[in-house]
Amino acid sequence: MTVRFPRNSSNSSYPLLRKAVRAAMLSTAMGISVVSTSSMAAEAGAVQVSQHYEIPAGPLSDALNQFARQAGITLSATPAQTQGRQSTGLQGEYSAEQGLNHLLNGSGLQAISEDGVSFVLQATPQSTALTLPTTDIKGFALGNALGSMEGYNATHSQIATKTSTALLETSQTVSVVTREQMDDQGSQTVAQAMRYTPGVLTNPYGATHRYDYVAMRGFNDGSVDNIYLDGLKSMGDSGTYSTMQVDPYFLERVDILKGPSSVLYGRSSPGGLVALTSKKPLFEPYHQVQATVGSNGQRGMGFDFSGPVDDDKRIAYRLTGLTDKSDTQFDHAKEKRFALAPTLSIDFTDDTSLTLQAYLQHDPDGGYHGGMPADGALHQRNGQRISSHFFEGEPGVDGYKRDQQSFGYQFEHRFNDVFTARQNFRYLDSKVKLDQVYAYGWTTPTSNELNRYYSGGDEKLHAFIIDNMLQAEFFTGATKHTVLMGADYQRRKTVVDWTSGSLQPINAFNPVYGNSAISYYSPTSYLRRLEQTGVYLQDLIEMDKWRFSLGMRQDWVETSDENRIAEAGRPLGTEISDKRTKLTGRAGALYLFDSGLAPYVSYSESFNPNSYSDSSGNPLAPTDGTQWEVGLKYQPPGTDNLFTASWFRIDQENLATKLPQENFYRAVGAVRSQGLELEAHMQLTDNLKVLGSYTFTDIEYSKSMVSTLSTADNVIENKGNSPTQAPRHMASVWADYKFDSGALDGVRLGGGVRYVGYSWADAENTMKVPSYTLFDASLGYDLGKVGLKGVDVRLNANNLTNETYVASCASLNFCYLGEERNVSATLSYQF
User: Fold this and answer.
1) Contacts of 396 (CB under 8 A, 6+ apart)
2) Which residues fall within 8 angstroms of residue 190, CB to CB, at 6 or more apart?
3) What are the helix (H) ranges across 357-453?
4) CB within 8 A of 625, min separation 6: which ones?
5) Contact of 797 with 822, CB cutoff 8 Å
6) Which residues form the Secretin/TonB short N-terminal domain (predicted)?
7) Dihedral of the CA atoms 261, 266, 267, 273 (nearest 10)?
8) What's the CA gap between 45 and 117, in Å, rounded?
9) Confidence (pLDDT) at 116
10) Pairwise CA distance, residues 496 & 476, whole Å
11) Which of 70-84, 626-640, 642-656 has the lowest mean pLDDT?
């Protein structure tokens, strides 16, 4: 891959609003054309003139990027060439050639040019340094924001701006989990990969692996609607059982953006979003196979093959596959997965690239998903506590089967040094079959038997999403603009057939299975549709040491729900639809000090259509979120270590609530979440990596959650209380050390501790879920040290002390048991 470091180149009102946005986009594009034309006309004679530079020490890629912009040159390089290299900076008067020679001194690299304007980075003839394969996509505008990197310290991300932006220069909190971190910590799900990220509760529903639930900054709506893959929304239906899940083995990195983010992505949760980046083809041969065995009968195998297809290395492939199965910690519940991801990248020219992707996954067994009453889970009932292995369902009934296939592409074309166009597309097809027997409360105040109910689902989902972007980089005087104009469209259709019923109770402390007769209730069947169109405009401004970000977006969202079976008061074919338009914005300012400090302030907004209906069957208004964030980032000069402190306040309106005896929701209430997050990513030595985080979250209902009925007994007053599944304190530390000499040469030791403070078990705040502390460990060894080149073994243990705990409670009847100790060993061979 080649990355070019750029050179200088100078309501009734909704239809009107839509026209205004389009006019603004058009006028911005026209202005960019005028500026770029005049700038390019003057650039040819500028590059040979000496000028003064004040480029601070830091990563070599950043120094070269700044130099190329200021010098007015184009510098072509691969991310692997600059990866991990540092620069001492550049101060003084230099020509373009002199400045490059100074920056590259001692790096083993040189810049070659035939015209004095376009330079190519090459290894010096005497250099013997190895160039590792890179998984960076062919992204001229995205650069190293999506690719692989060594260690735990990413330097750039595209999640907050859809452009390659340095984390230090992003005026919002962004965390990155690298491939190496996922491997070292033995992450088995995407949620587990984020266990050491501040502000994120990764196990709100306990030990289940079926979905990647992620609660961020105190917000958990019970869905996985905040997961994105390769820049596009995952497109599962959060109101059903059809949600997409990607195995972490297929990922290169996980980026986490905190706070509202609708300005670029449309409908989203106010807590933030999680962006997954899949493995991309390598242009150097790479082959790896691995086998894993572990506790609870876990066993699996995976392979990852990649390399160029042609001699010119214009076409490269990657084929990744996995098979995995486990008995899980719950009796009679199993997990099984088969997945395959073929990918092909084509470089038509140096300016045009296309990546074709597919992801095929078959989950015959989806494991366990259920909760227990607080009385019996949080504390003893009749002198006994519910076992963390207890299964309240029926072995002959329960099952979860999911088949998902997605196909897509990422296309990018650079017109010139100013304009780059990108288009991302994905189509998703999913089938889900669910049969679940679940518990809901005790049969009597003193019995040991749980009431049991049945839920059945047969669902088919079809969805596609496309995102078109035009990016322009230009200067107005000494000010650089990176303008992004985009339009995206998504469409989803889900056919759901649901059944429900009741079964005989079961003894929670001495279960006897076989009472599988179900008394069925009336079935329901719906055709659910969603359609969203959005246009957005963003300007990232670099003015000396200032960084400003401005963005706005207009969305048009339409949802509908048509019943396919006649219901009481709702004839066959009745359709309930809802159309909403929403304008959202974002603004941020950040200042870069020479010392590496970067204070910032930002404001952002979000909205999300509500999947609930009122007593008349009409959809509720979308929830709205706004956030103010003030923070300080610090990157010591000459390193890629990053320290972040952020204070935030999020207000969310139009929440939904209902009384237990009601079958409809009311749009009432609001939530305010505010708190502090601290994060540190440190490469202390060549051998020692350390991660640290702390989270304080103060979240409460800021408006009364009131259901106004005729009797005072039915009034719910929650103002000032905290929602469930929102710990007040969380903290974590992880360290990994690699020995490279002596008797322990080749050994890697890792260890971590995770603390989750207390949360509330009910919205009325009458009962607490106790805090818990978990320990994790990792031990690895490079068998190449004893002659087995390319062979590596790794042992991972999570919850090392086998702590028994309740992860959280969504209500007093649904508390979720935490994951017990699990140990796995992985043997891998790279060739």
Assistant:
1) 516
2) 212, 227, 245, 246, 248, 251, 254, 274, 276
3) 374-377
4) 260, 269, 270, 605, 606, 607, 608, 650, 651, 652, 653
5) yes
6) 73-124
7) -40
8) 9
9) 73
10) 54
11) 70-84
Task: Count Cα neighbours of 334 within 13 Å in the Cβ-side half-sphere.
Answer: 14
For helices 60-71 and 96-104, angle between their N-to-C axes, nearest 10 degrees: 180
Residues facing 502 on adjacent strands: 453, 519
- 3-state helix/strand/coil string of 587-634: EEEEECCCCCEEEEEEEEEEEECCCCECCCCCECCCEEEEEEEEEEEE
CB proximity list for 490: less than 8 A, separation 6 or greater: 233, 235, 266, 463, 464, 465, 466, 530, 531, 532
Q: Is 118 left (phi over 0), alpha (psi -120 to 50) or beta?
A: beta
Nearest to 204 by CA among 371, 378, 14, 410: 371
pLDDT of residue 46: 38
Q: Whole-number mean pLDDT of the chain?
A: 87
Q: Which amino acid is at 465?
A: I
Residue whose entry in the numeric block shows the structure tokens 């190293």: 144
Domains assigned to the chain? 1-130 (3.55.50.30), 272-830 (2.40.170.20)
Closest to 406 (Cα-Cα) out of 373, 359, 472, 347: 359
pTM: 0.83
Helix (H) or strand (E) holding 67: helix 60-71
The dihedral through the CA atoms of 722, 723, 724, 730 has a sign that is negative
Q: What radius of gyration do the chain's Cα atoms show? A: 27
b (16+ CB within 10 A) / e for 691-728: bbbbbbbebbbeeebbeeeeeeeeebebeebbbbbbbb
Exposed e or buried b for every residue in 512-546, given b needs 16+ CB within 10 A? Answer: ebeeeebeeeeeebbebbbebbbbbbbbbbbeeee
SS3 content of the chain, % helix, strand, coil (to 5): 10, 50, 40
Give dist(CA 157, CA 332) in Å, integer. 42
Give the residue among 766, 754, 724, 762 at the shortest CA–CA distance from 219: 724
AA identity, residue 749 = L
End-to-end CA distance of the chain: 22
Rounded percentage of the chain residues whose pLDDT exceeds 90: 68
Q: Which of 409, 398, 458, 454 is nearest to 430 (CA)?
A: 458
Q: How far apart are CA 55 and CA 403, in angstroms?
A: 52
Cα separations in angstroms, 416 against 58, 96, 367, 551: 28, 21, 51, 24
Q: What is the DSSP letter of 372?
A: B
What are 563-622's pLDDT values in tens digits? 898 887 778 888 888 899 999 999 999 999 999 999 999 999 999 887 666 766 677 778
Rounded distance between C-alpha atoms, residue 336 and residue 32, angstroms: 53
Alpha helices per DSSP H over 215-268: 262-265
Long-range contacts, 100-103 (Cβ 8 Å, 24+): 100/64, 100/67, 100/75, 103/55, 103/60, 103/63, 103/64, 103/67
Average pLDDT of the segment spanning 739-761:
95
Please report how many Cα atoms fall inside a 13 Å half-sphere around the Cα of residue 317, on the Cβ side. 9
Q: What is the pLDDT of residue 12?
A: 40
H or E stretch at 20: helix 14-43
Torsion angle defined by CA atoms of residues 725, 727, 733 and 734, in that order, rounded to the nearest 10 degrees: 0
Q: Which residue reads 């089967």 in tokens?
A: 401
Please count the helices (runs of H) and the strands (runs of E) in the chain. Answer: 8, 46
CA distance 289 to 784: 16
> Can you tell me the mean pLDDT for 634-638?
92
Q: d(Cα 56, Cα 596) in Å, to the nearest integer?
A: 9
